[in-house]
Amino acid sequence: MASSHSWEVPDRAWDREIGPVDVPPDWDDVEGGSDDEADLSILTEEECQEEFSKMLTEHYFAGKLSARSTCVIAYWAQRSGLRGPAVELAMPPTSASGHFQRHLDKALGLKAHDEKLCKIVMPCYSKHSACRDSREICVLPPHEVLYEEVQQQPSMRDMLQQKIDTKEWANVYANHRVVLDNPGEEVYPIALFVDGVPFTQRDSLLAFYSYNLLTGIKHLNAVLRKSQICRCGCRGWCTVSAVFRFLAWSFSCLASGTFPANDAAGNAFTAKDGDRFARSGQTLGFRGAVVQVKGDCAEFSHSFGFASWKSNQFP
Ligand SMILES: [Zn+2]
């Protein structure tokens, strides 16, 4: 339900009047109230129901509401006559404590893509023990999402050839080892993009995207909460390097043009891995060459571990 709306483009009039859609209005901070700026009386009953649902899920994702509170608020609202999408979140307060999280995961569609996700274990910082710990995060291998994209667009091969003929890309593509070693093969130029994304006042995310330069469609591959990045003195490198190792594994599959027989940690796929086991060693039908790594200055000095502009060793 929440995922049915674009994160970037406000699709309703009051979103544009109040503020950007990715910054939820904080009613307590608005001096004199927002009623002077936006006429909320024009909203229909359905729009109000949708807004209630959006606000409830945003507070849940921001950590302001527990799974239990979210379900119970929706329950009492439903019992008071509320209709609309928030009703799917409702659970009575008498439910067993472990059921609230499972119910929310299902209602919000958070488990809908489990088969596509891989899990990797990485070092992290635990605020509960205030020391180094490890945790499992879900990631999407670039070679799998880019394979799907190529499958869905059969015309990409012709588009690729056209770009090569017109020398659309810089020499970094033409001189790339994967391109030189595989003349006449379908080799797509791939970019890695790393970006910081604030999601609450106190915390932000570090997001890793990959995309095919031919289409520019960004695929989100991994997300780290900055508050959970390792603080053992490594400046976060313990955690970030685990993501880079995962990306290196997937980019090697793109370079070799084959589905891997082992996961990112080197463990061989077995029958319980489903499609990944069935496709082990099979060809992707194309190759990918990583020709760009993009991010802002902060990411290059922090996430990539390069010297910052303040460093004495800066060239
Ligand atoms: Zn560390």
The total of beta strands comes to 6
Largest sheet: spatial strand order: 5-4-3-6
Structure classification: alpha+beta
> Gap between N and C termini, in Å?
50 Å
Largest sheet: 4 strands, mixed
Number of discrete helical segments: 11
Helix share bin: 25-40%
The topology string of helices and strands comes to: HHHHEEHHHHEEEHHEH
Provide the domain count: 2
Low-confidence segments: 1-35
Q: Which overall shape is indicated by the principal axes computed on the Cα atoms?
A: globular
Bound molecules: zinc ion
Q: Averaging pLDDT over every residue, what do you get?
A: 83
Classify the oligomer. single chain
Rg from Cα = 23 Å
Can you walk through the features of this model?
With 315 residues, this protein is α+β, with helices and mostly antiparallel strands. The protein has two domains: 2-107, no CATH class; 118-302, no CATH class. The chain contains eleven helices and six strands. It has helices at 13-18, 45-61, 67-79, 99-107, 142-152, 156-165, 171-174, 177-181, 237-256, 275-278, 297-302; strands spanning 118-126, 131-139, 187-198, 204-212, 218-225, 287-294. The protein has a four-stranded mixed beta sheet with strand order 5-4-3-6. The chain has a two-stranded antiparallel ribbon with strand order 1-2. It is globular and about 65 Å long. The termini are far apart. The structure holds zinc ion. The site of zinc ion (ZN) has 5 residues, from loops. The site of zinc ion has 5 residues, from loops.
